[in-house]
Each structure stands twice: as structure tokens, then as C-alpha cells.
Design brief:
238 residues, alpha/beta, Rossmann fold
Amino acid sequence: MIIGVVGLGTMGLGIAQVFAAAGHQVRATDAMDPARASAPARMRAALEPRVAKGALTAGAMAKTLANLHIGDLASLAPCDMVIEAILETLPAKQALFAAVEAILGPTAILATNTSSLSVSQIARTMRHPERLLGLHFFNPAPAMKLVELIPHATTAPTALTLARQITESAGKTVIASPDRPGFIVNRCARPFYGEALALLEEGRTQSAFDAAMLAAGYRIGPLSLIDLIGADINLAAT
């Protein structure tokens, strides 16, 4: 399969790495020249510590990097599925999908990695909304196993099936979610973040309640997770 990724920030590059590591050919692009130019080096920098720790062979890293192809939007034309990971604004996503639709083949799937916008709203301006779906990865995408699969009212069942198969082939656990604010995970996470911020406002220290959550079995504390995700992205998903 040929997977396209639009947006080479933290999430987009991580998603590109996921599919490149799974043996898919990845064609990736970004509106910003520096993001495109730096993408291979940034992916290498993300993989090298795993090689140093023995978690990844040098050969596997080389194959992953060889599967990454950086180009312009037109280079996505042969893709079987294109995932966008651009800024979280509705007009930007709608404009992007209009441009991508114009160059893709008729059977290609389009997926949005949005964490806060309605998939149905994104689809409203598309010529073929039946091939759009949500495919929500979590940060850091290479490490987090879970991916939410979000259909809207007219998403084609064949698109959902193929998107699930492709994503599971990359080692991810895919769960279906309704197209509702927060989907599943972000909706459940609101108290996790909100109560942590309330404790901070009451004068508790971050180290204290992060330590408490780690002791309870969480892999990361709530405020540390806000920092990792980005406060702006977290606010948009609230």
C-alpha cells in the first residue's frame, strides 16, 4: 500500500514513521519548505535512540527511512490512503481535502487525524464525502498502540474496512468511535486533565499528583501529558 501523509509536524511525522516501519511506501508533504526538508533527519533522530538501546536494528531503521518519500501535494496521486495531520482549523482541513480529492484516484481513502473537529463538518465540502473518515492517532504515534476510527453519516463501509486493515497492519489497535465531541479517549480524559488543573489551582504541586498517578499505574501524569500533547491542542479538544 502507498500511504500519504500531509503535515510533517510531530503527529504527521510520527504517523509517517508508523507506516514506513510497517513496510508501506509513504509519500509525505507539508506546506512549509523547512518541514519537508528536515523530515528525514527528524525521523532518523527519532529512530537512532531505539537502535542504540537494541530495540531496533540498524537495518530496520534503514528500511524505514527508505520507505519515506518527501514531495509536493501532487506526489500523493498514487496513494491508497491519505492522512492529514495539519493545523486544527476547519477551513484549512476542508481546503486541503478539496485539493487532495482533485489528484487522487477514485478508490483512495481520505482520513483526518483531527482530535477536536467533527468529521461530518469536514466532509460537507467534499465532492466524495463517502471516502472520508477519522483516523485519530495519539502522541507519540509510533509508541501509542490505540487509534480511533471515526465514520461520519455517509462514510462508505468499504473505506472503513480498508482503513482498519491498513492501520492494523502497522501494529495498531483500532477502535470504532462515533463522530461526537472528543470521540472516546479525549472525552474520557477531560476529568483526568480538568481535576489535575483544579488541584494545581488549589496549591498542590505537579510532582505530587503526577507521582500519585504513576503509582496508580498510569504511564504519565496529567500535567506532563498536557505538556507532551500541547496545551493548545488539549484546549481545542476540550
